[in-house]
Each structure stands twice: as structure tokens, then as C-alpha cells.
Design goal:
Strand content: 5-15%
Oligomer: single chain
Radius of gyration: 18 Å
Distance between the termini: 15 Å
Number of helices: 12
Number of strands: 10
Strand order of the largest sheet: 1-4-5-6-7-8-9-10
């Protein structure tokens, strides 16, 4: 089974009106990304996955903070409604800013809506990932069995602090909350080595490969590091829709050795790629297969 653990909730149920189409220039170097999209466009983009995990990020101004577009007051409801429309193929994660009043109450509400994990982007949400409010929220998630997918690594959003996404921050979180299931998004690009040594030491910490296939050298260095450190079993597939599709992510992973032609650099073994594509991500995160 193929599980895409990293997708963003579509912004529109039906076709996006031309006047509401938003394009962001900086997520990819090869083409702009259309950040407004419909439910059918999501289904087409994730058709290569049997199951996908989907979420928004709770920010006051989504366009300014992330380049994505959705009504901030409907952040979690949009995800819950989308998941409820096809619960056999979609798993929804909630998002809150731990520093905002009512964060735990909102998490309680979202659990009642059927959302079973959490997406946090401390850089986009501008909260200290090791601050007291965040630590209280991680404790809540650990007690209630909610896995957290953290944005890790670079972002083109100028106002998003890089220090909040450095992978060794996650090591600190995992040390304090050893039973908390964590996914480090994007293998912490460009800090793949720091990500690998973190997932290697913590039984419940994983990394997804979303978006790193868009930068071939980063992809090769990150996967090669995981091979050398024996951490390839902690890597999960992710597309980062709408930045890419599941099929594009799969093709990108298989291209990792293309640049090695004529060199003596070691190849990333095919079985490593197969392992990522068919990783048992749901069991790793303590989640159940959708009905």
C-alpha cells in the first residue's frame, strides 16, 4: 500500500473561479505552483496513493504565511469536511497555534470531527517550538495519541524563522516526549544529515521525503546519508501537494541515481526506494487504515 503522508487540503470544493486562482512563484525552481485547487484536482494529483494524509496550517493570513489560500477560521473544518467525503482514502490532521488561547479546546473539537493527527509549522505560525505553550501541547498530543507532522527546514517565506525549523529542535522535543509520534517533513531540507541522525536515535521519529526530489543533489545527499546511517526504514513518502503530485514524488525518488552516470559515487539501492514507497506509515504513526 502506498501512503502519501504530506498533502494540503484543497481550497475549493468545485472548480476554482478564474478570479480566485493564486499562483506562487517560489516553491519550485522549475515552474510556479498554483496554490488554489479543487477536490477533483486533489484526487487526480494523489491518484497514485492508496491513502493520503491531508491538513491545513493554522495561520492568521495563509497567503502571506505559506503561499496557500483558505479562510483561516475554517482551517480545520475544511479538512474534516474533505476527509468525510472520502474516508476510505483520506486521513485528516488538525492544526492549531499552541500559543493561541483555546488551542487545546480546538484540538478537542477537531478530534470529535475525526481528525487524528496534527500539522505544525512553527516558522509559519511564529511560535517557539520549545516554548512552554508548545511543550504543553506536545504533552496533550502524546497523551491522546496524536502524531505530529512538523514542517522542517527551508522555506521561501521571508518572515518564517529558519531557527524554528532546524531538525535538532525535533531531537529536543523527542527527548522530552519519547512516546510522541513525529514526522519531520522534507527530511529537513537542506539539513538532511541532521534529520537522519535524529530519526535514527528516536524510535517514534520519522521523516518524509516531500519536496526533496525537486532538488536532485539534496535528494541524493539526503538518501545517501540515510543509507550510511542505517535509517532508511524511517523514511515515508510525501508529495507536498499542491507543490507536487504523488506520481511526481514517486518518479522523483526513482531518479535519484540519474546524475551518477559516469561517476564512482555510490548508488542509492533500489530496495531503499521501494521501502519508502511501501512504508507502513500508518502503523508507524499509530493510525488505523481508513474504513
Amino acid at each position: 500500500m502506498i501512503v502519501d503522508v504530506h498533502t494540503h487540503t484543497p481550497t475549493h470544493r468545485d472548480r476554482v473561479p478564474p478570479g480566485e486562482r493564486l499562483v506562487y512563484e517560489h516553491w519550485r525552481t522549475d515552474r510556479p505552483v498554483v496554490t488554489t485547487n479543487s477536490w477533483p484536482e486533489y484526487d487526480t494529483a494523489t491518484a497514485a496513493a492508496d491513502v493520503s494524509i491531508v491538513f491545513n496550517i493554522a495561520v492568521d493570513d495563509p497567503v502571506a504565511a505559506t503561499g496557500l489560500s483558505y479562510p483561516p477560521e475554517r482551517c480545520n473544518d475544511l479538512t474534516a469536511e474533505f476527509v468525510a467525503a472520502d474516508p476510505g482514502r483520506r486521513i485528516g490532521f488538525l492544526s492549531v497555534n499552541p500559543e493561541r488561547p483555546g488551542a487545546l479546546e480546538e484540538a478537542d473539537r477537531c478530534r470529535e470531527l475525526g481528525l487524528v493527527g496534527v500539522k505544525l509549522g512553527p516558522n509559519y505560525q511564529n511560535f517557539d517550538p520549545l516554548g512552554e505553550p508548545a511543550l504543553r501541547f506536545y504533552d496533550y498530543c502524546q497523551r491522546h495519541g496524536l502524531p505530529i507532522l512538523f514542517h522542517q527546514g527551508a522555506s521561501p517565506i521571508r518572515a518564517a524563522p529558519l531557527r524554528y525549523t532546524y531538525p535538532l529542535m525535533t531531537d529536543e522535543v523527542a527527548l522530552r516526549f519519547p512516546e510522541l509520534r513525529i514526522v519531520m517533513a522534507h527530511m529537513g531540507h537542506p539539513w538532511g544529515t541532521e534529520t537522519v541522525v535524529t530519526i535514527r536515535k528516536h524510535p517514534h521519529v520519522y521523516a518524509d521525503v516531500s519536496s526533496i526530489y525537486l532538488r536532485p543533489w539534496v535528494l541524493y545527499l539526503s538518501l545517501s546519508c540515510a543509507v550510511e546511517w542505517g535509517a532508511t526504514g524511517k523514511l515515508l513518502l510525501g508529495s507536498d501537494f499542491p507543490i507536487a503530485t504523488t506520481e511526481e514524488a514517486i518518479r522523483g525518488l526513482w531518479s535519484v541515481n540519474d546524475m551518477l552516470e559516469g561517476t564512482k559515487l555510490p548508488r542509492v539501492p533500489d530496495e531503499v526506494i521501494e521501502g519508502i514507497l511501501h512504508a507502513d506509515a500508518l502503523s508507524a504513526l499509530g493510525l488505523e487504515l481508513p474504513a
